[in-house]
Amino acid sequence: MRLSRYGGNCNIGVYAAAGENLAIVAGDAEPDFVRDLETALGVKTILTTVAGSFVVGSLTAMNSNGIALSGLAEEDEIKRISEVFDNVYTVPGRYNAAGNNILVNDRGALINPLYSDNAAKALEDIFGVECIRSSIAGCDTVGSVCVVTNKGCVCHIDATDKELELLEDIFKVRPVKTTVNHGVDFLASGIIANTKGALVGDQTMPLEMGRIEEGLDLYD
After folding, report:
1. Sheet holding 109-111, edge to edge
2. Which CATH superfamily, name and number, covers 2-215?
3. Are strands 88-91 and 102-104 parallel, antiparallel or unpaired?
4. Splitting the chain (220 residues) into consecutive groups of 10 residues, what average pLDDT does each group show?
5. Where are the domains of the chain?
């Protein structure tokens, strides 16, 4: 696990999304940030915008089977990503910030409870997993308050025991409650992770780092 910043900002998760082998990174990212990401997670990187924005982490959700982008993504952005990953879907409608509204690994997905049946079915097709609708800690934007990989999960400090059980049931990992960046409970803003490692915002305290390492099962 490594500490990093994005252009002086500790909210690194807003600017990148990662799977097991690929990370989508804001097109204006500095070389040091890209290098940190590639080293910590062992991934190749694509530098791009999504919907003309550099907040690609908030607008992208991915697992090993598919990538969901904001429905506002532009044709050249979709083409750029599709050249290296051929299963790309754009999320239509009001809740199209895929990274904020979708939490997914290779075993399951938790999605904003306001998604329609049609949206849930489309996401199941792209990710190849069942999608369950629920909020976490009173937040419908479940992708913003949790981070999950195929090895572990960290979640909002106010998640209930029932919600922890739901996360474990969906993702087949044991979730750990924590904060990041000195008390921030929207964990995806400060963590980018896969099974090989994690990059966290550089305001993260040692106690938080320990919980994140435990939750994402990064001890080895």
Report:
1. 102-104, 109-111, 131-133
2. L-arginine/glycine Amidinotransferase; Chain A (3.75.10.10)
3. unpaired
4. 95 98 97 96 98 98 98 97 96 95 98 96 98 98 98 98 98 98 98 98 98 93
5. 2-215
